[in-house]
Known about the structure:
The chain has helices spanning 48-51, 83-96; strands at 2-4, 11-13, 16-18, 23-26, 57-62, 68-74, 80-81. The protein is an alpha+beta fold and 103 residues long.
Amino acid sequence: MRNTCGSGKSSQEGGVMVTPVLATCGEVNIKDLVLNHHEADDVFTCYIEDLCHLKNVGSTQFRTGPGFTLPVFHTGTPYRVWGLTAIILAFDINNISSWTLQI
């Protein structure tokens, strides 16, 4: 089963409203999706279970200012999950799984 993950709480950062959603969408056939090219260039799916494997979890460090480290998920596709999406995903994996994601 393919899943998407998010907290379900809206937040506004830099004038952009973000509403992540935790959901199960069942089996998805990418070829059946109708992509709105004004909203996204491409689409992919991955299993939450696969993202929980340590081999698929990484981090990126920003050294400007005080510096900070953010999670990065390798998806088995040409894409990585990073940025706000990865932060939300890491938070939710920590809340729904039996292990704690260490970044």
